[in-house]
C-alpha cells in the first residue's frame, strides 16, 4: 500500500500551520512546512548579497524534494503550504505519483485573513517581511487570490472554512483516516 500524503493548503493566515502541526502530532506523521524550511535557510545563509533572497525559491525546491523523498521511503507525510492554484499542479506531479493523496484546503474570509496576518507580525520570522506585507495585504486584499482556490489535483479534497475560528481538527482527522 502506498504511503499517504496529506496536503494542507490555503491562503496566508487561513490557519494551515496550526492545523498541520496538530494533525501531524495526532497522526504521528512527519510534518513538512515550506515556511519552516524557508526560516531555516534564511538563518543558515549569509546576510550579504542575494543568498537570503534566494531562500524562497530554494525552500520550494526543498519542500517538494523532501516530501517526495519521505514518500519514496514509505513515510506518510503532512505537507503544508500555500500553493498557487495553477502553477503547483505541475510542480506536484512527481510527489503525487508516490502516494495516496488526501488534500485539505482551508478557506477563510479575506477580511479575517488580513486581520490575522497583521496580528501575527510580531511573532513571525524576519524572512517573511510580514510588517511590510501586512500593510500591502490591507491595501490589496486580493493580493493572494491565487492561493484562495485549491490546485486542481484530481485527488480527494476536503474544504474547511476557518473564518469562525471553530476547531476543525476532528473533521480533518476523519477525512484523513479514510485513506490509511
TrEMBL record:
Query: Could you name the domain of life of the organism this protein comes from?
Result: Bacteria
Name by which UniProt lists this protein? Kinase
Q: Name one Pfam family in it.
A: AAA_33
Q: Which organism is it from?
A: Deinococcus aetherius
| Gene3D superfamilies, per the entry | P-loop containing nucleotide triphosphate hydrolases
The record's InterPro entries line, in alphabetical order, gives: P-loop_NTPase (IPR027417)
The family database entries (PANTHER family) matched by this protein are listed as: OS07G0160300 PROTEIN (PTHR37807)
Amino acid at each position: 500500500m502506498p504511503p499517504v500524503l496529506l496536503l494542507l493548503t490555503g491562503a496566508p493566515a487561513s490557519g494551515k500551520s496550526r492545523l498541520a502541526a496538530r494533525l501531524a502530532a495526532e497522526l504521528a506523521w512527519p510534518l513538512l512546512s515550506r515556511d519552516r524550511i524557508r526560516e531555516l535557510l534564511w538563518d543558515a545563509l549569509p546576510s550579504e548579497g542575494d543568498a537570503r533572497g534566494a531562500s524562497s525559491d530554494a525552500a520550494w525546491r526543498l519542500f517538494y524534494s523532501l516530501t517526495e523523498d519521505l514518500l519514496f521511503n514509505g513515510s506518510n507525510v503532512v505537507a503544508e503550504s500555500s500553493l498557487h492554484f495553477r502553477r503547483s499542479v505541475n510542480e506536484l506531479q512527481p510527489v503525487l505519483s508516490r502516494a495516496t493523496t488526501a488534500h485539505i484546503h482551508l478557506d477563510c474570509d479575506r477580511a479575517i485573513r488580513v486581520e490575522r496576518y497583521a496580528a501575527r507580525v510580531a511573532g513571525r520570522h524576519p524572512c517573511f517581511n510580514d510588517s511590510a506585507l501586512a500593510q500591502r495585504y490591507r491595501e490589496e486584499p486580493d493580493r493572494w487570490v491565487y492561493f484562495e482556490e485549491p490546485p486542481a489535483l484530481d485527488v480527494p479534497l476536503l474544504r474547511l472554512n476557518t473564518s469562525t475560528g471553530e476547531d476543525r481538527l476532528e473533521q480533518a482527522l476523519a477525512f484523513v483516516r479514510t485513506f490509511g
